[in-house]
Amino acid sequence: MDAPTAEVLLHVALLSGRTAKVTAKLDTSVHEVKLDVGQQLDVSVATLIAADGQLLEDRWTVEDAKLQNGDTLQATTAQIRSELERQAIGLLSQLDNG
Length: 98
Fold this sequence. Notes:
Helices cover 33% and strands 27% of the residues. The chain is an alpha+beta fold. It has a 4-stranded mixed sheet.
């Protein structure tokens, strides 16, 4: 098994199909990766999701998240997250009234 490299190349895709490539050190935070992706794609990244569906926490490092060189992540934008939150609140209010 190869020793971990000091940096990994991550591929990040938006639901729209737009993509970004980020080279990150193992001690880079997920938050920093989100900022890099956001700058490249001119969006506000709300969440990063690993290939296994795990939501990556901002405070985690690349190493904490067990990201490997060449991994592809899914990103959601703040606009999409706001819409999902609005829909969730609407559903909860329907359940409370139902």
